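Notebook entry, structure prediction.
Reason for the run: the old model in the group folder had no record of what sequence produced it. Starting over properly, with the input documented here first.
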Amino acid sequence: MKKIVLAVCAALTTITITAQNPKVYFTKDITPESLVKIYEAMGVTPKEGQRVAVKISTGESSQSNHLRPEFIKNLVQKVNGNIVECNTAYGGNRSTTANHKKAIEQRGFGEIATVDIMDEEGTINLPVTDTKHLKYDIVGSHVQNYDFMINLAHFKGHAMGGFGGVLKNQSIGVASSSGKLYIHSAGTTTTSWHSAAQDDFLESMAAAAQAVHNYFKQEGKDIIYINVMNRLSVDCDCDGHPATPEMNDIGILASTDPVALDKACLDLVFNYDSTTGDNAIPLQNRINRQHGTYIVDYAEQIGLGMKSYQLIDIQTSGINGTQATTTYRYNVYSLDGKKILDNATNLDGLAKGTYIVNGEKRIIE
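New structure, fully documented this time:
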């Protein structure tokens, strides 16, 4: 049985693996069938009569690395879902509803499902728990038409956020065009482009993602999360001419906890064993350049989710009764910040003392 590495980077994660740690499901197979399997592995499905939204990015051009219709078709049709999107805040072919609909048809999404531009008929304000920058989250009014959301994200780099996963897909992605401006400006404006200080922007994204999560966690609603780690360019799907990916595909990951899911994907990127022709360093550098990992730190801080997790490999032979094989990894620092162990499989050999193990202070006796 193969083993999938749980690479827990030093931050604020928890060392103890308990039943409370969110489960993040993994498969290395990136196929329409595996996408359905990993959805089923979570065990959270729409109830009869619930209206299902599948939130994706429709991509800026045919050259973008967005998830293709043929890849998501089986899942979307299995849940009888509508594909949902919102208009962009920048110039391009998706900044108006009319142009966005044309782009959707050109990409082929209309052939597999109804596609709903959620801000076509206006916006609503969702309450935010964290009011440090935002007073509310401005989203497409059609979000009210849905009881269940599958946040189906393409994990990749991003010029502004450092990376894009489910947190970005839920914050910027579900926000209306004016809501996108509001988040990017950290609550300063809804009518013009203004780039806030980087950490303020990342904090605003986390707050907006939490607002959507809370909305779908009301009684009678629910939300689940999937990241597809393929075509791992440093550039987002909003880029019509993205850089060619320099690292190989990794797989599909899914969870009911968006913070744990994005953190697991980040760990896989930062613990990637780069070789000639398969190089994760450009994506690592892009994420670091934008302080991108901070969004999961802040999202955990405001209570959206947890950075600790169990990474569970679903065997391709089936889901029911599958036993997961999981190997835990440890990053250890001295109290003055010196790295002692990097991606270690155990803590054997550590001298007695106090260390920071996966972000938590731990005494070795």
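Summary: DSSP finds nine helices and 18 strands in the chain.
The old model has been moved to the deprecated folder.
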